[in-house]
Amino acid sequence: MTDVAFQVEEKIAEMASRLKQFLAAQHREKPLVMGIHTGGIWIAERLRRGLEIAEPLGHLNIAFYRDDFSRIGMHPRVTPSILPYAVEGRHIILVDDVLYTGRTVRAAMNEIFDYGRPASVSLAVLIDRGGHELPVQADVVGSTLLLKAGEHVKLLGPEPLVLEIRRS
Question: CA-to-CA distance for 137 and 101, rounded, in angstroms?
């Protein structure tokens, strides 16, 4: 187990700054922030505060939307998504901790579209570790990590947030 060499909170603050610039350049006003369970929620809450967005945070649980559901089986503690607002016609900032294959993001977008058709969906991730299997790209990335075979990155938290690289 190895700690990654940067401070997670500093990266999130940088992400908030880049998100402000991105949203302004795209003319996306009054966005909603949604985090993917669990690490994405921790990061999304910090980004929501950094962007000074008053509306509550949306919590996405994509367990039922996974394309490997039959392979990994049912998790006994699956909780529903919580979206305390209408998404129809709104700009969404979707947040996750790690972008790897792109399958989690695809599942999250399926969940969002079940609630309505947003005007746009922007993706912000703390770590892009490459290895994408789907054409998914984040609009804002905290850091890119190239990991060796058998290595995985894991965000631990919520207080403090610590990023670890683990070998399987």
Answer: 10
CA 137: distance to chain centroid?
12
The pTM for the full model equals 0.91
Question: Does the structural domain 2-64+85-167 have CATH classification 3.30.1330.40?
Answer: no
Return averaged pLDDT per consecutive 10 residues of the chain, 168 residues in all.
65 98 97 96 98 97 66 60 95 97 95 96 97 96 92 92 90
Query: What are the structural domain ranges in the chain?
Result: 2-64+85-167
Q: Which residues contact 163 (CB under 8 A, 6 or more apart)?
A: 3, 4, 6, 8, 126, 127, 153, 154, 155, 156
The pLDDT of residue 65 is: 67
Q: Quote the DSSP letter at residue 42.
A: H
